[in-house]
Amino acid sequence: MAPQPEPSIRNRQIWLEKSDPEVRLYYTEALPPPSTSLKGYILLIHGFPETSYQFRHVISPLALAGYHIIAPDYRGAGYSSKPPSGYTKKQLSTDLYQLVTQHLGIKDPVHLVGHDIGGMITHAYCAQYPSSVASVIWGECPLPGSTVYEETKHSRTLWHFDFHSTPEISLALVAGKEKLYIKHFYDRLAQNAACFSNDDVEFYASQYSAPGAMRAGFSTYAAFEEDAEDNRQWLKEGKVKCRSLVLSGQGSFIAVAAEGMAGDFYEDMKVETVEGSGH
I need a surface site. Which of 8, 106, 143, 252 has the fewest CB within 10 A? Predict the structure, then answer.
């Protein structure tokens, strides 16, 4: 029997800024086997409290299907550097746009996939660089500036939005308890918490226990009000025209509001739920 083709997978890092503070992005890249025709490019953008590791089960299948995959740890997360600023979704999406177009030299439009904070980043990417986007799949985030965001940002469900936005006290309270803290989100928001193995939790705990990691993660939340203003300003120029699919977990609180939220910002959009899934 002939051996099955395998994608070429490599882990790399690039510097967007080498001066102090450096901005260094780690990413996983997967290329289709030489015998497989290239169908396009997919940029996978993770959420919090996760990293590009969350896509480990889909990178190879997508590459085998003919896609060139890029899965970065965005600024401040995972193996990437953790500068003290630059956590608006406008800046995080610009970082990734530079990774794709300048450092990887990809000029064709890319398919974007963003979960949680990654969903907010994909929206900023689409709003700023629409001609560089082939399609976008995003979800599991109340988009800053949307009606659902304004109605829920101080709710009990999203208590951590305010907690993360006051880093002086929140970081002090979480320090040394990173594993306990991030596991709370996996247990509370997943429909099947067992999908996070002990090894997975330990990996994420080690990533978010690194110096500056939790501060960087909280900073993505502290930037929400600036993100909201950016999203409102972009909306004044018209809705995003990129082909859009909003995916929500069937058991997620955002599922019921996803269609209205997407319709406020996108012209060409579909909404689907994932059966048996939480956040």
Answer: 8
Q: Which residues contact 167 (CB under 8 A, 6 or more apart)?
A: 215, 218, 219, 222
pLDDT in tens, 138-156: 999 999 999 999 999 999 9
At 213, list the tokens: 């990691």
Looking at residue 1, what is its pLDDT?
57
Predicted structure pTM score = 0.97
**DSSP state string for the chain:** -PPPP--EEEEEEEEEE-SSSPEEEEEEEEE--TTS---EEEEEE--TT--GGGGTTTHHHHHHTTEEEEEEE-TTSTTS---SS--SHHHHHHHHHHIIIIIS---S-EEEEEETHHHHHHHHHHHH-GGGEEEEEEESS--TTSHHHHHHTTSSTTHHHHHHT-HHHHHHHHTT-HHHHHHHHHHHH-S-GGGS-HHHHHHHHHHHTSTTHHHHHHHHHHTHHHHHHHHHHHHHT--B-S-EEEEEETT-GGGGGHHHHHHHHBSSEEEEEETT---
Q: Which two tokens stand for residue 186?
A: 């996996």
**C-alpha angle 44/49/52, rounded to 5°?**
25
Q: In what order do the strands lie in the sheet with 133-139?
A: 8-17, 23-31, 67-73, 40-45, 110-115, 133-139, 244-249, 269-274
Residue 59's pLDDT is: 98
Query: Do 202 and 196 contact (CB within 8 A), yes or no?
Result: no
Cα(143)–Cα(139) distance, integer angstroms: 9
Asked if 234 and 208 touch (Cβ cutoff 8 Å), the reply is: no
